[in-house]
Each structure stands twice: as C-alpha cells, then as structure tokens.
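Milestone M4 deliverable, item 7.
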Amino acid sequence: MTSHMPSRGMISRRVLVATVATSALLGAASVPAFASPPVSAGHAVGHVDCGARLDYQKTVAVGVLKEAFERGDTEVVDRFVRADYIQHNPLASDGAEALKNFAAGLHQQFPDTKYDVKRVISENDLVVVHSNLVLTPGSRGSAVMDIFRFQDGKIAEHWDTLQDVPDGSVNGNDMFSTVSRPQTGQPGPRSLTAANKALVTKAFDRLIVDKDLSALDLYWSAGYHQHNPGIADGVAGARDGLGAYFRAFPELTVSRKRVFAEGDLVAVHSHYVNAPGERGQSVVDLFRVQGGKIVEHWDVLQDVPATSANDNTMF
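Output delivered:
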C-alpha cells in the first residue's frame, strides 16, 4: 500500500470528495460517511445492510490508500486500521504503528505519489483494490493489487502484489483499462457474484492448477481480452502463451489461496511455483465474466523475496 493532516474525527474533505468520485466510478450503491460501519462484523452476507457494509469497506480501503500514501497522513491509520494489523507486504512490519511509519517514509521520499484506483471489489470481509501506483510523475509506475480484510469495521490484515508497468504489451492492451463492453470499472450487479465466483473457481482450477488447456474452450469467450503484457489477445493467445509456459515449467504448481468476487469481477490470489525449491511468485488474477464466459483478464505478479520484515509470508 502506500502529509497533510485532516481535521480530527474525519478524513480530509478533499480525500472524501475523491473517494466519493471513485465510488461513483466503481458503481457503488452509496458512499457511507467515514464514521462507523453500517453493520456489525457479525452480520451475514445477505443481510439487508450487507450492500452498505461492502460499500463502506470499499470506501475505507480506497480512502486509507489515498490519504496514507498520497499524503502521508497517519491519523487515517489510527481511525481505520486495527492496532494489531497483520501485514503481508514483505517490506513492512506488523501493526498500525509500522504502517504509519512505512506510509510516512514513502511519502517523504516520494511526495508526489499517486494511487490511481482502477477498480474495487468487496465480498464478505475482503476488499481488493486494483491500482496504478505512480511514485514519480511521468513514470509508468506499478500495477498493484491490494487485498484488505476487515474486522469490526476496521482494516485487520493486508496482502499486496506489485509489478512494474512495462513499455508495451504483445496484445496492445494496457494493464488497467476495460476493453470488454460496457467499458467500465464497475463490478456489475451483486446478484451475479456467487455464480461468477463458482465459474471462475472451476475455470481457474482446471486451466491453471490442473494445466488443462481445454478449459479455454469451456469457460472463455471467443472475444476474450488479455491485459497480461506478455500474452497475446484472445483465446488463441492464451492457449499459445499458457501452453508455452506449462511446457517450460512441467513441475509448475499453483496453490489457490483465496477467491473473492463482486458482480462480474472475480479475483484469485495464488502462489505460483515454477519448480520445486523455488520461492515462487505471488499472483493476483482478476477476471471479468459476462453471460457465463470469461471475457477479460488482468493480473499482477511479484517474486516472493528471500527475506521479509514480517513472519507472515505473502499469502
């Protein structure tokens, strides 16, 4: 994840305005105030207030990222992050105080940091934020997937995966845009969440975990759009690119860690290990589903480092 101090008791007005705009872009049904969560953590999915709670979590996640890492604000951490916060970013230690120090240090080194949020989804107590993090103006920056777990209305745990944005791609698509129609970052109706999550889980396990390329014929649309910069567009591009990958690494293992979805967007966080004994990569794959087929894919890949500032692993 990523200093101007807001008035006590609320997030700064300009960040709230930016977050409201972001939530509107992402199709949130409402934008809760930065106060207390609309429902307790004990409410089950499907409760009448579940949608408000998910919107609250999305708004808080985006607000904390933008306020802490664009402005180095530490008060936002005090308000919306648990003191016993669990950190999986290998560069930072556990706890809210460590997060405050990490954010302040990054802001001091890169005062013009921008967290350009592209899409946000939330299911149950989890939120994933797909962003273009730019530390230096004019640079391409990094593609980032931040994953947050909420507890009692506050952020309790965080995972992330970062990848440098390359000069170009073999498919002609950037790492962030929506190409399939409608061209929006909105996650679609939540009534579709369960079915799309089940479809992507089956498709991912068959194609990536089991390395069965025939899954592409069952679960992928003929007009499939690819944002991984090293793989060509379309089902044929996926077949060629993944086929070559599977042949190059016949002992590849992929351990699916968590799947979460909202509407037509489904994210899968996994541990890819190309060969036994390697540390592997943390990967977040994000799929868009329409009409029972996968129509678009984004991903972010990061090598697991040899050392970490915490003992939690990246998973």
